[in-house]
């Protein structure tokens, strides 16, 4: 039913009935609804823009906390990086120097990390700079720690080799000077030969003593020769590895066989007067790369500094060797 409205007519001085059509009323209503929706939308936009929902507020708080934690992580990675750098420095400048090994090539330590752009996905994110720098640091540290641990494995092998080397290189006297009857009678170098009476090169050190005095292996090694000849008499040669050999001559007897492994201090035979010799003694040679070197430099293990000095300065008997 159409709503009846009246309008005052100034000319007739009466109220005229105005009938509003349905179309006009509908238009009227639509305008009102439209205006309400528009206002509602404006209010909603303002609310969404400036007022957070409780969920949004929580997320924002969490986000801020994560960001703070990321910053702390970043700083901790910097500190760890310093620790690793110190380890690398010690490795290159101490451990590897001790073991006479080259430092690790810096290009290996600083080598790149695979992938053309492993951080592409992070570039899209907020705070991408912080995320990328943290991830880069973590990747670098992981790689540095891996290389360092590999290096320590190598050093462990070097330590074992060094221990083996130190046990192998001749380092003690072949006879014990604690027995007062045993003494150094001739040194290394040019001596008057006791038989030929000419100056000849004496390639070892002679120790005089009673026949049967024990002769010891001066380092760990393998017996490569046990034999008798007219010059050295009964003699033994030990290969110690690391380019060292030792030679023990004029023995009265030996207790080892060719191919036998011996330890430093193990008895290999007994002092004698076999071969070309003018008196019971042990002729002892140290060979490095098959060249005779002065054995006096290889007695450092069982002598005190005083004893060593006395031995070095002891005067050869009559300036001649015993063989
Ligand atoms: Zn000699």
Structure in words:
The protein has 323 residues and is α+β, with helices and mostly antiparallel strands. It folds into 3 domains: 4-50; 64-168; 183-319, Glucose Permease (Domain IIA). Helices cover 41% and strands 24% of the residues. It is built from 6 helices and 14 strands. The strands form 3 sheets. Strands 3, 6, 7, 8, 9, 10, 11, 12, 13 and 14 form a 10-stranded antiparallel sheet that branches. It has a two-stranded antiparallel ribbon with strand order 1-2. The protein has a two-stranded antiparallel ribbon with strand order 4-5. Strand 9 (233-241) and strand 10 form a beta hairpin. Helix 2 runs parallel beside helix 5. It is rod-shaped. The model has no long low-confidence stretch (mean pLDDT 88). Bound molecules: zinc ion.
Write the layout of secondary structure elements.
Blueprint: E1 4-9, E2 14-19, H1 22-50, H2 54-98, H3 106-109, H4 120-123, H5 128-168, E3 183-186, E4 189-192, E5 199-202, E6 205-208, E7 214-216, E8 221-229, E9 233-241, E10 244-254, E11 261-262, E12 267-271, E13 281-288, E14 291-293, H6 305-313
Antiparallel strand pairs: 1-2, 3-6, 4-5, 6-13, 7-12, 8-9, 8-11, 9-10, 10-12, 10-13, 13-14
Helix pairs in contact: 2-5
The structure holds zinc ion.
Descriptive keywords:
323 residues, alpha+beta, Glucose Permease (Domain IIA), 3 domains, ten-stranded antiparallel beta sheet, two-stranded antiparallel sheet, 14 strands, rod-shaped
pLDDT averaged residue by residue: 88
Low-confidence stretches: none
**Secondary-structure element series:** EEHHHHHEEEEEEEEEEEEH
The CATH superfamily of the largest domain is known as Glucose Permease (Domain IIA)
Instruction: Determine the structural class based on helices, strands and strand pairing.
Output: alpha+beta
Task: Look at the structure and give the CATH class of the largest domain.
Answer: Mainly Beta
> Helix tally?
6
Task: Identify the CATH architecture of the largest domain.
Answer: Distorted Sandwich
Largest sheet composition: 10 strands, antiparallel
CATH topology of the largest domain: the name is Glucose Permease (Domain IIA)
Count the strands?
14
Q: What is the terminal separation in angstroms?
A: 149 Å
The ligands bound in this entry are: zinc ion
* Strand coverage percent: 15-25%
Indicate the radius of gyration in whole angstroms: 49 Å
* Overall structural domain count: 3
What coarse outline follows from CA principal-axis ratios?
A: rod-shaped
Helix content: 40-55%
């Amino acid at each position: 039913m159409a709503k009846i409205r009246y309008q005052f007519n100034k000319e007739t001085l009466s109220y005229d009935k105005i009938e509003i059509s349905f179309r006009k009323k509908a238009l009227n209503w639509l305008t009102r609804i439209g205006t309400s929706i528009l206002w509602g939308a404006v209010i909603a936009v303002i609310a969404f823009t400036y007022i957070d929902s409780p969920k949004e507020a929580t997320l924002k708080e969490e986000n801020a906390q994560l960001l703070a934690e990321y910053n702390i992580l970043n700083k901790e990675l910097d500190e760890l990086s310093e620790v690793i750098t110190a380890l690398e420095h010690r490795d290159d400048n101490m451990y590897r120097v001790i073991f006479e090994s080259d430092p690790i090539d810096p290009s290996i330590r600083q080598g790149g990390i695979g992938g053309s752009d492993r951080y592409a996905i992070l570039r899209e994110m907020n705070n991408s700079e912080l995320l990328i720098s943290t991830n880069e640091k973590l990747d670098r540290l992981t790689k540095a720690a891996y290389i360092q641990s590999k290096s320590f494995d190598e050093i462990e092998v070097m330590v074992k080799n060094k221990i083996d080397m130190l046990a192998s290189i001749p380092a003690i006297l072949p006879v014990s000077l604690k027995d007062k009857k045993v003494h150094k009678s001739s040194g290394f170098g040019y001596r008057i030969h006791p038989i030929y009476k000419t100056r000849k090169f004496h390639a070892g050190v002679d120790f005089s003593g009673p026949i049967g005095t024990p002769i010891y292996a001066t380092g760990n090694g393998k017996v490569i020769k046990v034999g008798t000849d007219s010059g050295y008499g009964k003699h033994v040669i030990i290969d110690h590895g690391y380019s060292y050999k030792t030679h023990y001559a004029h023995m009265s007897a030996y207790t080892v066989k060719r191919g036998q492994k011996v330890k430093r201090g193990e008895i290999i035979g007994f002092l004698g007067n076999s071969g070309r010799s003018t008196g019971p003694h042990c002729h002892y040679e140290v060979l490095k790369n098959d060249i005779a070197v002065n054995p006096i430099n290889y007695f450092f293990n069982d002598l005190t500094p005083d004893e060593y000095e006395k031995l070095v300065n002891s005067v050869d008997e009559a300036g001649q060797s015993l063989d």
